[in-house]
UniProtKB/TrEMBL annotation:
This is BadM/Rrf2 family transcriptional regulator. The keyword DNA-binding applies. SUPFAM superfamilies: Winged helix' DNA-binding domain (SSF46785). It comes from Luteimicrobium subarcticum. NCBIfam families: rrf2_super. Residues 148-161 have a biased composition (Basic and acidic residues).
Length: 172
């Protein structure tokens, strides 16, 4: 899955709103932008999109700003992503369960459905409260405890620097 800057910004801004939730304070867009080093021009648009999805409420005026519409423990990260980008997995705008392939590619749909299920197992499980607390559910914590989870796997091209021997490169 490619995590766009827009999704990254939205999840980080939602985490800031989750952190402020217990105080009941309205958080200004400038404060959100500054806290997460998100370009200010994105903040209002992202907050508005989250508002349209029912995840955020806003209030205009001197004492206004934004806050979560729900307690942070009731907002999974997946809902923030869906609000910004739509379904977790789709193929050319079509839901993965609705794509149809022929011949040797028939099972590709099942791969996409499995991928969506795997993403849901993390993104629907982790709430904004978990993110703010820095304590992920055991199923997710177990995934990231594996050292291999922290390594990017290059495609199978030879990614060695010129002149490097194959003995000096480890598989990722």
């Amino acid at each position: 899955m490619r995590i766009t800057s827009k999704i990254d910004y939205a999840v980080r801004l939602a985490a800031e709103l989750a952190a402020a939730y217990p105080s009941g304070d309205w958080v200004k867009a400038d404060d959100l932008a500054r806290a997460q080093d998100v370009p200010a021009q994105y903040v209002l648009g992202l907050v508005n999109t989250l508002k349209q999805a029912g995840l955020v409420v806003t209030h205009r005026g001197a004492g206004g700003g934004a806050k979560l519409a729900l307690p942070p423990d009731r907002v999974p990260v997946a809902d923030v992503i869906r609000a910004i980008d739509g379904p977790l997995a789709s193929v050319g705008g079509t839901h993965v369960e609705d794509v149809e392939y022929r011949g040797s590619a028939v099972a590709v749909r099942d791969v996409w459905v499995g991928l969506r299920a795997a993403m849901r197992s993390v993104l629907d499980t982790v709430s904004l409260a978990d993110v703010v607390a820095g304590e992920l559910p055991p199923s997710v914590a177990g995934l990231i405890a594996d050292d291999d989870a922290w390594r990017t796997r290059p495609n199978r091209r030879d990614t060695r620097p010129r002149g490097a021997s194959s003995d000096s490169v480890t598989s990722a």
